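In this section we turn from sequence analysis to structure. A common task in structural bioinformatics is to predict how a protein folds when a small molecule is present, because the ligand can shape the pocket around it. The inputs are simple: the amino acid sequence and a SMILES string for the ligand, here adenosine-5'-triphosphate. Study the lines below before reading on.
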Amino acid sequence: MVSLTLEQVTAHYGKREVLSSITTPTLSGGQVVALLGPNAAGKSTLFRRILGLLSGAGHVRIAGTHAERPVAYMPQETRIDAVLSVYESVLLARMQGRRLKVQPEDLAQVDAALDELNLQHLAQRDIGDLSGGQRQLVSAAQALVQAPDILLLDEPTSALDLHRQIGLLSVLRRLAEQRQMLIIVALHDLGHALRFSDQAIVLAGGALKACGPTRAVVTAELLREVYQVEGRIETCSRGTPLLVVETAL
Ligand SMILES: Nc1ncnc2c1ncn2[C@@H]1O[C@H](COP(=O)(O)OP(=O)(O)OP(=O)(O)O)[C@@H](O)[C@H]1O
């Protein structure tokens, strides 16, 4: 099974160090990990560092994969390319780094990604004509279609309505289990993190504040210290954790 371990990982833009010595326990496939932290905490930077797009000290150790490209990434910004249809853009994402000749398996993966995210009805539309939320789902499909062992998604629900936020996070949770993928998803909604993630990594000011089971990590103390918000976590009658926010400090 795939696993990811960060050992004293740093990252810098020019001379400015943005991540300071991040070390995590080994994160294994089959689970969803929420990457949490306030604006500018370093979440996107950590994703870029894991992908090898930024340099820095320490080690990003990935084990248990034989895939040519084990990690797929959905960036925060969704690019627009008006000359491609949705189907073509997802196929293009699939073909990156592969043979140029499209195989039946590639087309099957495109259909599967579009089906998973309920995007088949948009398949022939120009990607530049889509709404912001539709574009965000297509971007998720472009990452999913690569059938990675590790999937990194940077705020994939920020443009989605509530129904689609829950839909996407439910799909991710199921796929993590079915495909034994390790899915790391940057989120600002701590309620979603509590409901849909197994583990949480919390960054603040480029440093690791906490890493562990989400319910143990997302506490009233964390809300106060990291988010400057007074609140509490309750459990509803069905056992689902609920975030109750009282006031910003
Ligand atoms: N390309 C860049 N060049 C220089 N500094 C950058 C660059 N990208 C990000 N930074 C800085 O690195 C720090 C961390 O930014 P990052 O985008 O990783 O935060 P984040 O946790 O993803 O934030 P948000 O929740 O607002 O998306 C910030 O201080 C930011 O200004």
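The helical segments are 43-50, 86-95, 104-116, 132-144, 162-179, 190-196, 214-217, 220-227. As an exercise, try to locate the residues that line the adenosine-5'-triphosphate site and compare them with your own expectations.
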